[in-house]
Amino acid sequence: MEDAERPPPLRITPTVRALSSALRGKRENVPDSRRGNGDRICPEPDKLWFKESSAKNLRSRDFLSPTTMLNTMYADGQVPPAVMSRLMSLRGSGVLPIAGGEVMGEGLRVRVDRAAAFRAVLPDGATEYLKPSSTKQGCVVLNCPALHPKANIPSPDALTLGQLRTVLLADHMGALLKRQGFAVSYCPTLPEDSDIVAFLRDLGINWPTAPAAWTNEEREEKIQAALENSPYKERETERGRRPSGGGGRKADEGENEEVLRVNLKRVFQEEGLQGYDPSLGTCTVHRDSVSHLAQLDLATVDCSVVTATALHVTSCQDEFRQQQIAMLWRASGATHVQKHLVCGPVKTPGSHLTAAQYLQLRRGQMKEASEMKYGDQIEGQTWDDIIRVMTSATVRFELLSTVHTSPVTLDVQREGSVSTKGPRGGVFVMYNCARLHTLFDSYERGVEKGLYPEIPEGSQLDFTALKEEGEWLLLFNYLIPFSELLDQSGQALEGDSGGARVNIRTEQICKFLVSLSKDFSSYYNRVHVLGEPLPHLFNQMFCRLYLLRALRELYHSALDTLTLPPIRQL
């Protein structure tokens, strides 16, 4: 009953929609006195308001409807009193409480009732703000072509940095989609004792495995038969000799050897599939292609829906080959939706490193940087684990913080080092997450010594004490919007991209965490959270601890989508 009576979480999008509705009223067109009988066309709702995010602008407003927008709706941009009244009395599911508004030179400013927002978000630990705002259904197969065997099982020494980027991206997408409720499977299944599996585990990636002796021959035979009987096949014969060796008999000079070819262009043209390369043409079916298709077929076995979505996460160098595989799968009778998430190249000016060499370089630099900062403490299993996680964080942020279609340029000069200071990447994020854990450890020690009382229930606190500008910035820019950020990957996958490629803003979580860390670090360096143990200061301290406890959980939730465990000490 208590959950049923709890108000819905505050959201940015419903607030912007409510503000737009209040500003537009019921009219689509507003009479323009300067045009006689002409009508003033009302702008699109999503363009009427802007959420502010900079510390400077948040000092005076939280949402702004620019003067240019007001001028398109009202004569001389004058907002009628009735409209202002609607704005000030705004209510609705998930709508932030409005405290006031005024028309100034830049437009119509609206301020949120910040104390009310803190009261709505923090007392329950902000749990509803750390998960997607809606639950999705469906099955997604994340296919990583870089991990499929060609002649042999892929190895870390043969894996390129561009291919490593696709593996990390597939892992990140899987974690995001699972959070939204999708059933996610990964392709291909790898031999459990292989070097590539050990390498991935070193990066914190838990890819599906099977015993070394396992084979997928039954499915391969099924796929081969389906292609043999496909309406898109083109049979040809080649004259020549079979290769000798391997126990095979030697063919006569005139014996015919049958080759299976499939017309891929017919597949996407006749089935109305958009965005495929018109030069795909006719493809010869080789054994590794059949193995790839059989792995895809295996990955869909546990799907609870008839039609799954296969997301092929591939490098731009391998995109053409993956389009061939996708159309071969279609030709074999597979009706699953297929999308291609294509990654730009990874450049290392002046060097050429494999994925294994790159990871080894970053691990060595991380250990060196840690030894310079912490000295002889850097020994034992605990520090080995810390360095491993910090190295994994560095690699992820270097390869995932850029828009996936754009190239990534890495500095891999061996004389360089990974800095443990400064607002850059994974190390900076993990360091600030550890600062939050250290803060709460200090508070608990203070409680044990009798300096501070236990944190009271949130309902007993006066959140008007949170007046420092950094406190509102952390709530308004990070805690409240996070759930809508989590929604975006699923929305992009479900939307109609109008082609084979899908563009998902996969860089957003990394950028979100770096920005959060900059603003938290600035706040933490400026504000003394654990103040003097004086009763009249406890309310403000506890309000701040509620905020920072929610922030700590926000870090955990965001890092979990990157399959990174939090660092609790540094």
Automatic annotation (TrEMBL):
<feature type="region of interest" description="Disordered">
    <location>
        <begin position="1"/>
        <end position="43"/>
    </location>
</feature>
<dbReference type="GO" id="GO:0006420">
    <property type="term" value="P:arginyl-tRNA aminoacylation"/>
</dbReference>
<feature type="compositionally biased region" description="Basic and acidic residues">
    <location>
        <begin position="231"/>
        <end position="241"/>
    </location>
</feature>
<feature type="compositionally biased region" description="Basic and acidic residues">
    <location>
        <begin position="25"/>
        <end position="43"/>
    </location>
</feature>
<dbReference type="InterPro" id="IPR037380">
    <property type="entry name" value="DALRD3"/>
</dbReference>
<feature type="domain" description="DALR anticodon binding">
    <location>
        <begin position="429"/>
        <end position="570"/>
    </location>
</feature>
<dbReference type="InterPro" id="IPR009080">
    <property type="entry name" value="tRNAsynth_Ia_anticodon-bd"/>
</dbReference>
<protein>
    <submittedName>
        <fullName>DALR anticodon-binding domain-containing protein 3</fullName>
    </submittedName>
</protein>
<dbReference type="GO" id="GO:0106217">
    <property type="term" value="P:tRNA C3-cytosine methylation"/>
</dbReference>
<dbReference type="GO" id="GO:0000049">
    <property type="term" value="F:tRNA binding"/>
</dbReference>
<feature type="region of interest" description="Disordered">
    <location>
        <begin position="226"/>
        <end position="256"/>
    </location>
</feature>
<dbReference type="GO" id="GO:0005524">
    <property type="term" value="F:ATP binding"/>
</dbReference>
<dbReference type="InterPro" id="IPR008909">
    <property type="entry name" value="DALR_anticod-bd"/>
</dbReference>
<dbReference type="GO" id="GO:0004814">
    <property type="term" value="F:arginine-tRNA ligase activity"/>
</dbReference>
<dbReference type="Pfam" id="PF05746">
    <property type="entry name" value="DALR_1"/>
</dbReference>
